[in-house]
Design a protein that fits this description.
Radius of gyration: 14 Å
Structural class: alpha+beta
Order of helices and strands: EEEHEHHEEHHHH
Number of strands: 6
Shape: globular
Mean pLDDT: 77
Largest sheet: 4 strands, mixed
């Protein structure tokens, strides 16, 4: 099990078999995370913000790289990012399986959303990354 204590999780989520890390400064990401939280909880998984300093250490990534896309980490150590994270998550939810067949479309769509999201923070790391891409 993966252990990460966060104000975004309750007692059930602290020892999860998987974690979905999202951008808590992005309104779209936060709304999506709130919507999917109960679905993940029923499957023994949890959510945490990418901004949590422990996430970078857990995934072995600098903040700039973390903020580029959502991350999905399974208890076996498998890591996925962006559209690949959405597809790996779809494998865990039976009604999400059609996403597996739409992988390329999903990748392009996710890259567009990630590049065009707006952060509430004064200095948005997503904007810095999108300028480099």
């Amino acid at each position: 099990m993966i252990s990460l204590v966060s104000e975004y999780t309750d007692g059930k989520g602290r020892h999860a078999r998987g974690w979905l890390f999202f951008d808590a400064e992005c309104k779209f990401c936060t709304r999506t995370a709130r919507w999917i939280a109960p679905i993940l909880e029923r499957r023994g998984m949890a959510l945490a913000p990418l901004q949590d300093p422990r996430v970078g250490a857990l995934l072995g990534m600098p903040r700039e790289e973390l903020m580029f896309e959502m991350k999905f980490l399974l208890s076996d150590g498998s890591q996925y990012g962006g559209a690949d994270a959405a597809v790996a998550l779809a494998r865990e939810i039976w009604w999400g399986w059609p996403l597996l067949w739409m992988m390329e479309i999903l990748r392009k769509g996710y890259r567009w959303i990630a590049a065009n999201r707006k952060c509430a923070a004064a200095s948005c790391p997503a904007n810095e990354v999108s300028r480099r891409v």
